[in-house]
Design goal:
Helix content of chain A: 40-55%
Number of strands of chain A: 19
Number of helices of chain A: 17
Number of domains of chain A: 2
Largest interface: A-B, 115 and 115 residues
Oligomer: homodimer
CATH class of the largest domain in chain A: Alpha Beta
CATH architecture of the largest domain in chain A: Alpha-Beta Barrel
Structural class of chain A: alpha/beta
Strand content of chain A: 15-25%
Strand order of the largest sheet of chain A: 13-12-1-5-3-17-18
Chain lengths: 455, 455
């Protein structure tokens, strides 16, 4: 585990919405801090997405284990004029003591299925809302995008390149991690490499070529220093650049070790075809072709469908910001309090009350149907939610390494029906059913709440 | 300034793409570490955007002042097998020694205009690319979105609510800051409040209502604890909720201090109209109406156009992720090296070589035209780029407070021609010209490079 700086938002109870703190004081004042169950789920699949991949659990558990306030934090809260000294004193000793259930990182999930379930005194469970959502929403979003890119690449290498335009440093690191989780072979971000143990990869930039008076001299100098490197050939004229790589190969003979050329602009498919012919004609069959420049899953798919001889793809911005779907309708909702199921009425979307479990049915190695049921129901199939933390301490299932999660994610993608794995929207969405017992709980609670409103 | 944790990506030289480090070693090995000029700009306005607002400079300067490597970082780099001990020794002493020019935070900018200009030995200027881009791209993107939301609100209050679905913690904090910069009155994120000195605001969540057996009892308890609070009325039946607030007003009489009700679902315009009538009929003219729930600038604009009596808007996800435009085509490009202008050829988009200045012409208090010229040209108008750092140390213009930047941002929006301020795409984009001298430099360098390619 990496070292945790003191002011890291991931360990600060102040990374929360103000109303969580005002409500917490109210719970404390009213003496109503009983056990609550909150569930994190998303309401519907965004257009063009057939599934979402759960990610980010590790950071959530890390936060929950270390979350607290400093005296500086308390001094700041005092300035807001909203909190009694009694309440601030209570916050001083804050530590998360609850239980967490979650689906393993890398698991494919569908609308209304809890990804994370927090069971704790309501003061604690409520205070961590913003952090839990923030740390699961984006990783799940970007892992789902990465799954599509890796699927489109159909076995060719994908490298994550998106740090520059990711939304801040945390997003850059998380995007690199999520891409690797879903099968990318590495990232360009060195800090992500160090922090998560992900392979770091890179080529060269146009600026390196431009600082040399001569492109060929730049290639020669870089190749001498980094024998297995990738040379960027499109600074001036792409096919001229390829010719210079071939010339370098002729000059160096057996000492030529350049592993790849990179194309970063223009008609990547046509340029890759020409470059491949030129390299092959020169006997440089081993020099691979790496393509980058504004790629997403659709462009990768189109290049491969057109037969472009591209061996590896660098995918940046559109992956790291999940360009077509930059947010999910994900929420963290109270479903039970003091042992009784809860729900709100005014939403047009049904929210099912009570603590739940998700059961997945698998046939012939493919997932076919999920049932969302009560937590205590016995239903046939694989239960997705597992206990990962108890009394504020991680359990074994909460200590899954990135490599283990990556293996799990791969098997999850392999278990997807073809229609869901496809980049195209599935004509028939995956079946998610509500168990009769859960439906009955919902209907009964709705009747009670409606009667209370009209009474 | 807030305290800076040791592992903060903003002070780690490892928050960079691997190729920056391999190129740096190459520069060191080749003895070619001469002065470079890099410029950060965006190439074109995204669809539906008439301008971009520059933001994020403070974090960039903060990083540049403190950036370095730790022994742990060096140990990690050693494991990659790419770097000589001589180079690692050079990195150990790394500190940024360059000069930075930038447009002030909150300034409106247009395509091809440098927002930030870094002048430093190429090893330094190149290594900071990912960090500079990452720390300017997202803040500028989200500030531009916030400008539209605040403009749409037409004087009504806007509160930033987007932490949960922002892309990670860094993005959440930056979105809160950018929204305040552009005129939002505050944020719900408490850590952003503490870190940046932004007002923090909040109401109550549905879960608070749900933990009480009775909505009216929940209102009474909360209002007793927080006299000037906002009560959320849509947990069960919105207008029923409003009636309960009115009942509470009748019961409390002079002691009733509730400041607002919040609507978070349903037809916000119609509900606000009904609620206003009910509150007014009960004599509660002072109780304001706060609306939230999936809002963006277009919905705010439509509500106001329809005459909805809404006094304040909570705007979350769509602002914090810049939902319609989650990235800009922003780049950090070498434009001069060793005293000579540089450019690449293969791009279809012209990139102008050499160090630049942007001159803005203002007529009758509105901006009318910009000219991008050579850095050393004398052109009539306001120069946008100002020196903010010299020899690695901030200058006065690099120490602008958030409040000062906020005043500047407001005057910038006021100076926009109406057509650009509008939410609708401008029929005629803002005029940005290239000075004849810069155009001549570009044409001459293009001829030289093309001759070198064909020769």
């Amino acid at each position: 585990m990496h070292d945790r700086p003191r002011d890291d938002p991931l360990r600060s109870l102040l990374f929360t919405d103000l109303y969580e703190l005002t409500m917490a004081r109210a719970y404390a004042a009213e003496g109503t801090d009983q056990e609550a169950v909150f569930e994190l789920f998303f309401r519907k699949l965004p257009p063009g997405r057939n599934y979402i991949v759960a990610a980010g659990l590790g950071d959530v558990l890390d936060s929950l284990e270390t979350l607290g306030v400093t005296e500086d934090d308390l001094d700041y809260l005092r300035t807001l004029g909203l909190f009694s000294e009694a309440f601030l004193g209570q916050l001083r000793g804050f530590r998360f003591t609850g239980e967490v259930w979650a689906v393993p990182e890398g698991t494919v999930v569908f609308p209304d299925e809890p990804l994370v379930q927090v069971v704790a005194p309501i003061l604690e469970a409520q205070l961590v809302e913003a952090l839990v959502l923030n740390q699961v929403h984006f990783p799940s979003l970007v892992a789902s995008k990465a799954a599509r890119v890796v699927t489109a690449a159909a076995g060719r290498d994908v490298v994550e390149f998106g740090s520059r335009r990711a939304h801040g440093t945390d997003a850059a690191l998380k995007a690199a991690r999520a891409a690797y989780l879903m099968g990318a072979i590495g990232t360009s971000n060195v800090l992500a490499g160090r922090r998560y143990g992900i392979p770091v990869l890179g080529t060269m930039a146009h600026s390196y070529i431009q600082t040399h008076d001569d492109e060929a001299a730049a290639f020669a100098a870089f190749a001498a220093l980094y024998p297995g490197t990738t040379l960027l050939v499109d600074t001036y004229d792409t096919l001229e650049g390829v010719r210079k790589v071939i010339d370098l190969g002729r000059r160096l003979g057996d000492r030529f070790r350049v592993r790849a050329i990179r194309l970063d602009s223009g008609d990547l498919g046509a340029l890759a075809g020409h470059a491949r012919q030129m390299l092959d004609a020169a006997g440089l069959h081993g020099v691979r072709i790496f393509a980058s420049g504004g790629l997403d899953e659709h462009e990768v798919d189109a290049l491969i469908a057109a037969g472009a001889p591209i061996d590896a793809f660098g995918v940046g911005t559109k992956l790291a910001v999940s360009e077509d779907v930059p947010s999910l309708d994900m929420a963290y909702k109270l479903v039970a309090y003091a042992g009784r199921p809860r729900m709100k009425l005014s939403s047009r979307k049904a929210i099912y009350p009570g603590r739940k479990q998700v059961i997945r049915r698998v046939e012939d190695g493919r997932i076919v149907r999920d049932v969302i049921g009560r937590h205590d129901e016995t239903l046939e199939g694989e239960p997705l939610l597992q206990p990962v933390m108890r009394r504020g301490a991680r359990l074994a299932a909460g200590r899954v390494s990135l490599e283990e999660a990556r293996v799990h994610a791969r098997s999850e993608l392999e278990r997807l029906p073809e229609e869901l794995r496809s980049l195209a929207p599935a004509e028939v969405p995956y079946r998610v059913e509500i168990s009769p017992a859960l439906q009955a709980d919902h209907d009964a609670l709705r009747r009670t709440l409606e009667a209370a409103q009209s009474g």
